[in-house]
Specification:
Helix content is 81%, strand content 0%. The two termini are 21 Å apart. The chain is built from 18 helices and no strands. It has two domains: 15-196, Growth Hormone, Chain: A (Up-down Bundle), CATH 1.20.1250.20; 208-405, MFS general substrate transporter like domains (Growth Hormone, Chain: A, Up-down Bundle), CATH 1.20.1250. The radius of gyration is 21 Å and the shape is globular. Helix 7 (138-166) runs antiparallel to helix 8 and helix 13 runs antiparallel to helix 16 (374-398). With 416 residues, it is mainly alpha-helical.
Length: 416
């Protein structure tokens, strides 16, 4: 009975993977607690300036960029589970160290440890999901886990809001303690994750050369870059745009985050279920079209009064979230399935690299464009996703996996 209900909601059958799912949920809640207060924590507990804290985080982000491909090679050599656990331990160690960090050098060092640990976690995450799921049902798994993380971030965000309201160093220390504890609990749960066998012994000479010469996968990578760029809008562009450009009250930003969280948490599985029978590349075309429409709506908000502007920001957020739910599971499934199994760690590290690069560029680029006029940001983002439409069409021509239909059923189930 329970399996039938979860299947109708678009969720996969968890079977023996409940500990892995639990670990991802706990990790998301812990991260959701800390991310909103990451800079505030160091300002409240150290004598460092805002510029110093920002510089340390930027340096750590830059160092994490080349770490991704290096860790992808390690995934192929020693297995994804080991790198997943290592990434979890590094983040745990970094957050414990934050309790006694009070210098710029210390903050930079431990933020590098945390950033590389996060890169290790996400660089191996896709490999684990590919190992526990089966071809044909991977959109369902990636969609479910993505929705669950979204809800976890929201729950953590509520806790962080309480800490910000209290505003004392003790409250901020409690936030870091909660995040460190989440990594410790997640590590224990992740010990039960099935190990993926090392595949380096089957890798040909010049493994990275094989990856870099894979033209169709680079088309997919560019499509991922377009999607990742759009995914920076909710956390970075909308808050700045709504508050500083449109002069809207803060509750509008909170409502936008709430809408996104509720829609993803309750609707992601249903959206993936509704994709059954549709070709993957066409889903990606639609996702990019929806993103462009959302940017037009958001830009249009600047032409109206405060009340209408607030309404349009919320409408734009709803449209934007639909694009998010359409594109994410399909891109994740393609990233895993289009990669040769024995080089999957390297291939997926490239997909993670797209996220890392856009995460590093977006804050500066979005702020610069908003400072030069709201239209420049939304036009630029629209152009990126218009390019994403062309890339999706090309992907359907050059990558057989992209031309397949979403089945939401494992291949062996379809054969019955």
């Amino acid at each position: 009975m329970l399996d039938r209900i979860t299947d109708k909601l678009g969720f996969p059958s968890l079977d023996q993977h409940r500990r892995f799912v639990g670990a991802i949920a706990i990790d998301a809640i812990g991260s959701g607690v800390f991310l909103p207060v990451s800079m505030l924590y160091f300002l409240a507990t150290t004598d460092l300036t805002l510029v110093q804290v920002g510089a340390a985080i930027s340096i750590a982000s830059a160092i994490a960029i080349p770490a991704g491909p290096l860790l992808g090679g390690l995934v192929d050599r020693i297995g994804a589970k080991q790198i997943l656990l290592l990434g979890n331990l590094m983040q745990f160690a970094g957050f414990v160290a934050y309790f006694v960090t009070d210098s710029f050098a210390g903050l930079t060092f431990w933020t590098v440890v945390v950033s590389v640990g996060r890169t290790a976690f996400w660089g191996s995450y896709g490999n684990i999901v590919a190992a526990i799921s089966r071809p044909g049902e991977r959109e369902k798994w990636f969609g479910f886990l993505g929705a669950m993380r979204n809800v976890g971030f929201a729950v953590g965000g509520l806790v962080s809001g309480l800490a910000i309201t209290i505003g004392t160093p003790s409250a901020y220390y409690a936030v870091v303690l909660a995040n460190a504890a989440s990594y410790a609990v997640a590590f224990v749960l992740l010990l039960a994750v099935p190990a993926t066998a090392p595949s380096e012994h089957r890798s040909p000479e010049g493994a990275w050369a094989t990856v870099l010469r894979d033209g169709p996968y680079w088309v997919l990578w560019l499509g991922q870059f377009a999607y990742s760029s759009a995914m920076m809008v909710l956390n970075i562009a909308i808050p700045i745009y709504a508050v500083t450009v449109l002069d809207l009250p803060g509750w509008v930003v909170g409502a936008a985050f709430t809408l996104n969280t509720v829609m993803c948490g309750l609707g992601q599985g249903l959206v993936v279920h509704g994709l059954t029978g549709h070709r993957r590349w066409r889903v990606l075309v639609l996702a990019n079209v929806v993103f462009v429409v959302s940017f037009v709506v958001l830009l249009g908000a600047s032409a109206f009064s405060l009340v209408l502007a607030a309404a349009l920001v919320l409408v734009g957020t709803v449209v934007y979230t639909v694009g998010e739910m359409l594109g994410g599971p399909v891109l994740s499934a393609l990233g895993a399935e289009a990669a040769p199994e024995h080089l999957r760690g390297r291939y997926l590290s490239l997909m993670q690299l797209a996220w890392t690069i856009t995460g590093a560029i977006a804050p500066v680029a979005f702020a610069w464009m908003l400072d030069h006029g709201a239209w420049s940001l939304w036009v630029a983002l629209g152009a990126v996703n218009l390019a994403g439409i062309l890339l999706a069409v090309q992907l359907g021509r050059v990558m057989p996996e992209a031309a397949q239909r979403v089945t939401n059923k494992a291949a062996e189930d379809l054969a019955v």
